[in-house]
Design goal:
The protein has 361 residues and is an alpha/beta fold. It is 44% helix and 23% strand. The termini are far apart.
């Protein structure tokens, strides 16, 4: 009996839950209508009270949000202000230390003055130029300014080191010679590039004075143009140095060439005679030939009577001698390096020999 009673109770509970679910689904709209009817039954006085309470709640929540937003933006404003002051106006990030290299073409004091001028003043009339951030973003502008102002500087590189140091690295050009051709003279660096105007033409017998090479072709020089090869520049400077060191012959710093592509140079010695050399012939070979020529053909006293020595042809020396300011002797000497024999001939003999050589060919 108890078993059947428990089973009936379970069935009853299941029916009630099923009916309740169905009732909720079916009569959901009825509940809504009842709620609307309940609101409609509220008196106007109560309705005003309810509206006032709702508005007060909304106003209190809005005032709370506005206070928090104000505090939020205030904190952000303080943070941004402190950050801007720290990176732009703080004395802890002001550039006050300089690292400069030793330079020979431009005095270090002049470079230091340019750096001080670069760091002085303000950008956009507000930001100081000596602050770390402003100097960091303007460093390329400083490199370009120094390169334009001093052409003898091949490259300039500036580093701004945290927190308040600036370092400048400079690569200088090496002056090889001064070239003049139908216009203003130009300075030529070790790579043969014309990089700056020369104020005056220098003529000196001092071995340390750079060579001034005058081009007889009078072809104008263009800024930044490559005029001479590095080999020719080395040949010109080395030949002048070795002439003085090995022969005691001082040559003027002012020399000539027929054209910049001829690869030839004509020196003027202190005694007044000229020495013509070619860069196409090895300098060692030319100097050995000259040494043999001086030893066997021309004494040291007779050098004063020379007008020129032309060594632009391999294994040949053309020369001209003057006595009592009258030209009375000229010719050429052919030199055999194997036997060391000199064969002297007059210009007419030289021409005839050249004709014979051509016929044989």
């Amino acid at each position: 009996m108890k078993f059947f009673r428990a089973e009936k109770k379970i069935q009853k509970v299941q029916k009630e839950t099923i009916v309740q679910l169905r009732r909720n689904r079916v009569f959901r709209g009825v509940g809504r209508n009842r709620g609307i009817s309940d609101k409609a039954s509220i008196s106007p006085e109560k309705r005003l009270i309810l509206k006032g309470n709702f508005r007060s709640k909304v106003a209190s929540s809005a005032s709370g949000c506005s206070w928090w937003m104000s505090a939020y933006f205030l904190l952000w404003g303080i943070f941004i202000s402190v950050f801007v002051y720290a990176i732009f106006f703080s004395p802890l990030l002001r550039i006050d230390q300089q690292e400069l290299p030793f330079t020979t073409t431009v005095a270090p004091s002049i470079i230091e003055k340019n750096i001080n001028d670069f760091l002085s003043g303000y950008s956009w009339r507000v930001l100081p130029n000596d602050s770390y951030v402003v100097a960091f973003f303007r460093r390329k502008q400083f490199d370009q300014m120094l390169s334009d102002r001093f052409p003898s500087l091949r490259s300039v590189s500036t580093r701004v080191i945290f927190p308040k140091s600036i370092s400048v690295s400079i690569e200088e050009r090496t002056l090889a010679l001064i070239s003049c051709s139908g216009g203003p003279c130009f300075l030529i660096d070790e790579h043969g590039v014309a990089y700056d105007d020369s104020v005056e033409m220098v003529s000196s017998f001092d071995i340390m004075t750079p060579i001034t090479l005058v081009d007889d072709s009078t072809k104008l020089i263009v800024y930044g143009e490559v005029l001479f090869s590095e080999e020719f520049l080395q040949f010109a400077s080395e030949s002048r140095r070795r002439l003085f060191a090995e022969f005691g012959v001082s040559v003027s710093s002012k020399a000539k060439t027929s054209s910049r592509i001829s690869n030839e140079i004509r020196f003027v010695t202190m005694d007044g005679w000229e020495l013509w050399l070619s860069g196409d012939i090895a300098l060692d070979k030319s100097l050995r030939t000259l040494h043999a020529f001086f030893a066997k053909m021309i004494s040291e006293e007779e050098r004063k009577n020379l007008l020129y020595i032309d060594m632009r042809t391999e294994s040949r020396v053309f020369y001209r001698v003057s006595e009592d300011n009258q030209n009375d002797g000229e010719g050429d000497v052919e030199i055999s390096e194997e036997s060391g024999v000199f064969e002297k001939s007059t210009p007419s003999e030289t021409k005839e020999k050249a004709k014979k050589d051509k016929k044989k060919k």
